[in-house]
Amino acid sequence: MEIDPPLRQAYKDLLMHKKKNQPALPAAAAAAASEIVDECELPLIDLRPLILAGGSAEEREKCKTEMARASEEWGFFQVVNHGVSPEILDRMRREQVKAFKQPFDRKKEEDDKFSAGTYRWGTPTATCLNQLAWSEAFHIPMTDVVSSSSFDDVNGGGSFNSLRYVSVVLCFLLFSALHEGKSSFASRGGARIKWSRAGLYCIISVKKINIYIPMPPAAAVFGLMPHTDSDFLTILYQDDQVGGLQLVKDGKCFAVKPNPQALIVNIGDLFQAWSNGVYKSVEHRVVTNPHVERFSTAYFFCPSYDTEIESRCEPSIYRKFSFKEYRQQVQEDVGKLGRKVGLSRFTVNAIYS
Fold first, then answer.
1. Which stretches make up the Fe2OG dioxygenase domain (predicted)?
2. Using one digit for the tens of pLDDT, what is the confidence trace for 96-130?
3. Region of residue 160 (left: phi > 0; alpha: psi -120 to 50; beta: else)
4. Residue 194: which domain range?
């Protein structure tokens, strides 16, 4: 019986390796399917001194230093005592499950209530298996949530405001760490980071809820293909029972061990460019579980479209660009190449035309 959504039917040519000029099994996908991946625990940071009252100046500085170090070395870290209540997260997960259990036609109707492209499944631009995402998702812009009551409040005000607050706090701390010598960047001569207050408050944050559908590993299909995030910061609430998130560190892939008390934070492309390559936006992916579904919620913290990304550091790795320019280039590359090129296009000596 066909699953909902009809992934097997829509991508049967890719799954049967019949697409023109496609090798019998893409090398990258085959390697990923057979790869032995070690499990890791991300750096764990207690945000109590920052989010809750009563933290000493010394404790706050310790948090800031630990976040800066993790952002340099891993590009990922996890936080506990983050101020987002377990009740909000539990309710959000229940509503998420309910949203995905709707009939396929009902889920497609959400595009009429929100922005076009809110409900997505698979990868329409995929030309080979290792570009195919074996999952479905709702991409919910904050502006849509504020103006609509179609989704439960847990997918709007409560969780959005809580995650937004945490994002703002973390961004400010990581920016200040660059200035105050909490990172190796500052110790190499200091940062001249241009930051617009309007750019922070005129955010276009997006919340993405995902379901990763069971698929045998031998099929060489990712739940979410290897990528980096195109924002400043991502906060992820992942399934606390079913793993699947994997990231690359020092050229090796690691599986992230689920922590039911923690939110995962990762650096995005914009933050890497703004920090002149000090904070790392690292490649990560999701592998499917062969037996059970996996749910996750990601909150993408982005600036306004006209915000300029400029490190003001000499020598600068990246040229100045706007978030709008970056977003448009990513969309163009995905449409033409089936994949994201990303920051490589925006280096001072970029080789891409």
1. 202-303
2. 899 898 899 888 887 666 666 788 999 988 888 88
3. alpha
4. 7-314
